[in-house]
Design goal:
The structure is a single chain. By secondary structure, this protein is α/β, with parallel strands linked by helices. The chain has 14 helices and 22 strands. The strands form six sheets. Strands 14-15-16-13-12-18-19 form a seven-stranded mixed sheet, sandwiched between helices. A hairpin with a 2-residue loop joins β1 (about 15) and β2. The longest helix has 22 residues, at about 105-125. The structure holds adenosine-5'-diphosphate. Adenosine-5'-diphosphate binds near residues 159, 160, 184, 186 and 237. This is Aldehyde dehydrogenase 1. Keywords: NAD, Oxidoreductase. One of its GO terms (molecular function) is aldehyde dehydrogenase [NAD(P)+] activity. Belongs to the aldehyde dehydrogenase family.
Length: about 475
């Protein structure tokens, strides 16, 4: 590390409003920090309410009078395909920005997240000309039909965990629907969104259709949630902020919202599981229930596997785990680890910060975790795994569902009956059998319970950016 640290040139740090990069009205900027070192990468324009107002005005003009919503779906799709090609031609740049700002592994960004985003655009481009209403036979001599219309100007609020990917979870279906939009990336990860904005312009997406306002949540984000001229807000982030967005939406113009919030997703490993498969799968899980017959062997393997787990610079292709996204997350995760210790869980490995600088944390495994401990209940969003034992399938179901969240669940078993019963019984939006965190552009993603509502991904996600209009006209001359 040290002198070899990758420090790319940063081209886009201003707000993108009406097709132009502009300073914030206030002239203010904020620091974005390299989590490898804690050093400032660059200053980014700090958008606030006035900037959101300007962006919404541009989006409103583009919606009410511009060509984007009036193009045929096929024509919109063609432009989105071009946008996708440009994303693909700039994979390295986008992958670099996300690695730089939030410590995500460069190689994974380059191989999966960013090319996956291009394909997501293509998928929704293909959907753009397949959106249509229905023709209805009415009880009287009337002709009825429905129109599916873009809902209008949408606000899209993005978190830092998958900055480029979640940007497209929301932007791609909203573009397909014919909406215009104001995107607010997380203050931890503004750079990829601003970079992508210049590619949207190159692709021929008209000015005002896609605006990006970087800035903080309680200012720029809150201005989106309470804006009187935004017609839908799609949000991914914490449950607490999701609640405040829904409140703000209710208090302002009753705009519908869709929320993809926190999870505390269980991974349930049954006695018959292939232990190596369970090992691969458990890497991403935070709440791991292991059936008593293989518990000891599993614990041993999990601890041993950490020895091969390389922490370090996210640009190093050998590294498995980069730094946490920022100081706040870093401190929060260490706080959760302390809490776990205090509550009596046993640390099998890890448990502290790694290295001399930056926001690195050792992979941490807790055993003897009980249901009432905070580490078993609250989302940690870090390399911390809690291991718990169970005996029967009934107990596994009860424990998996013993959470206010319902984002996802993983099941590891070779027994089809167990897999079927678990997948029907666990109340979560996504179930992964013998795999984990498997997302796909055509598979709906989103939670139950306090993990939110309104799916991202999947063809139906276009619907939340549309509204149905019912049209009726008399049929005087026809008996039908
Ligand atoms: P996390 O804690 O994972 O960063 P947050 O929910 O705090 O998740 O942030 C997710 C996104 O929501 C970010 O873009 C953030 O700026 C934004 N945000 C935070 N607070 C608010 C708020 N009060 N209103 C609207 N958006 C907000």
């Amino acid at each position: 590390m040290g002198s070899e640290l990758k420090k790319p040139e940063i081209k886009f740090t201003k707000l993108f409003i009406n097709g132009e990069f502009v300073d914030a009205v206030s002239g203010r900027t904020f620091e974005t920090i390299d989590p490898r070192t804690g050093d400032v990468i660059t200053m980014v324009a700090e958008g606030d309410k006035e900037d959101v107002d300007l962006a919404v005005d541009a989006a409103r003009e583009a919606f009410d009078h511009g060509k984007w919503p009036r193009l045929t779906g096929f024509e919109r799709g063609k432009i989105m395909m071009k946008f996708a090609d440009l994303i693909e031609q700039h994979v390295e740049e986008i992958a670099t920005l996300d690695a730089l700002e939030v410590g995500k592994l460069f190689l994974l960004n380059k191989l999966y997240d960013v090319p996956g985003s291009a394909d997501m655009l293509r998928y929704f481009a293909g959907a753009a000309d397949k959106i249509h209403g229905q023709t209805l036979k009415m009880s009287g001599a009337m002709h009825g039909y429905t129109l599916k219309e873009p809902i209008g100007v949408v606000g899209l609020i993005i978190p830092w965990n998958f900055p480029a990917a979640v940007f497209f979870f929301k932007v791609a279906p909203a573009l397909a629907a014919g909406c215009t939009m104001v995107v607010k990336p997380s203050e931890q990860s503004s750079l990829s969104a601003l970079y992508i904005a210049h590619l949207a312009k190159q692709a021929g997406i008209p000015d005002g259709v896609l605006n990006v306002v970087s800035g903080f949540g309680p200012t720029a984000g809150a201005a989106i949630a309470s804006h009187m001229d935004i017609n839908h807000v799609s949000f991914t982030g914490s449950t607490e902020v999701g609640r405040s967005i829904m409140e703000a939406a209710a208090r302002s113009n009753l705009k519908p919202v869709s929320l993809e919030l926190a999870g505390k997703s269980p991974l349930i490993i049954f006695d018959d599981a292939d232990i190596n498969k369970a090992g691969e799968v458990c890497v991403a899980a935070s709440r791991v229930y292991v059936q008593e017959g293989i518990y000891d062997e599993f614990v041993e393997k999990a601890v041993a596997s950490v020895k091969y787990w390389k922490i370090g610079d996210p640009f190093d292709p050998e590294v498995h785990q980069g730094p946490q996204a920022d100081k706040k997350q870093f401190e929060r995760i260490l706080g959760c680890i302390e809490q776990g210790k205090k509550e009596g869980a046993t640390i099998l490995t890890g448990g502290k910060a790694w290295g001399e600088k930056g926001y690195y944390i050792e992979p941490t495994i807790f055993a003897d975790v009980t249901e009432d401990m905070v580490i078993a209940k609250e989302e940690i969003f870090g390399p911390v795994m809690s291991l718990m034992k169970f005996k029967t399938i009934e107990e596994a179901i009860q424990k998996a569902n013993n959470t206010k969240y319902g984002l996802a669940a993983g099941i590891v078993t070779k027994n089809l009956d167990i897999a079927n019963r678990m997948s029907r019984s666990v109340r979560a939006g996504n179930i992964w059998i013998n795999c984990y965190s498997a997302l796909d552009r055509n598979l709906p993603f989103g939670g139950f319970k306090m993990s939110g509502f309104g799916k991202d991904l999947g063809i139906d996600s276009v619907e939340k950016y549309m509204q149905i209009k019912a049209v009726v006209t008399p049929l005087y001359d026809s008996p039908w």
